[in-house]
Amino acid sequence: MKILNLYAGIGGNRKLWGDEHEITSIEYRQDIADVYKYYFPNDNLIVTDAHQYLLEHYNEFDLIWSSPPCQTHSRARLWGWKNDNRVEKKYPDMKLYQEIIFLENYFEGLWIIENVKPYYEPLIRPKIGLGRHLFWSNFNITPTKIKEADIKRGNRKEYSELHGFDLTNFKIETRKDQIYRNCVHPETGLYILNCAENKIIDSSIQQGVLF
User: Are 25 and 53 in contact (CB under 8 A)?
Assistant: First the structure.
């Protein structure tokens, strides 16, 4: 498949996908993109605005994964707003819902959008919730247990072991433990990809392509 991986980060969701697919990943920050490129040198990595790239290139791909910024939707930020005057108050970033509506109506391939469970009732019902994540998609995702851990803030070693990335030698402008926390666990990313592949197989069988 030709896969578009938006808001790629350091590549948590992509880590176990292997190299059998043609993967284009979009990341806005160069320091984060440098980590991604180190771990996935065969991917087509583009440093640009993922939201705009989706609008201009969506029809070039078979599968689109998008993980729009989650901070303004998170329960942790709401807690911060109420308990810490230093936390900047922000409107929820509506790119999340813009992309769900856009892909649902314009894209003919398979798509998945991931975000945190928000502090409010989701404006569009997700396909499924897995751990602390919600997933919107146009294919079936069966319930499963996913790997997560209750790791104390700042514990980079435990985050590194959980996700399989080592950020020690990379210069990153923000807290490294937060970069780890933003990752979808690799096993979850692989599970979602397998669900998408099963959808393609089922569709092929129904159309008689595999006979």
Answer: no
Closest to 184 (Cα-Cα) out of 83, 54, 66: 66
Model pLDDT for residues 32-85, shown as the tens digit of each residue: 999 999 999 999 999 999 999 999 999 999 999 999 988 888 877 777 667 777
Is residue 187 within 8 A of residue 147, CB to CB? The reply is yes
Total number of domains in the chain: 1
CATH of the domain at 141: 3.40.50
Cα torsion angle, 201, 203, 205, 207, sign: negative
> Do the domain assignments include residue 211?
no
Instruction: Give dist(CA 69, CA 83) in Å, integer.
Output: 22
Token pair, residue 52, equals: 């705009």
**Domain assignment of residue 46, given as a range:** 2-206
Whether the Cβ atoms of residue 80 and residue 153 lie closer than 8 Å to each other:
no
Q: Is residue 6 part of a domain?
A: yes
Q: What pTM did the predictor assign?
A: 0.90
Calculated CA dihedral for residues 210, 186, 15, 115, nearest 10 degrees: 90
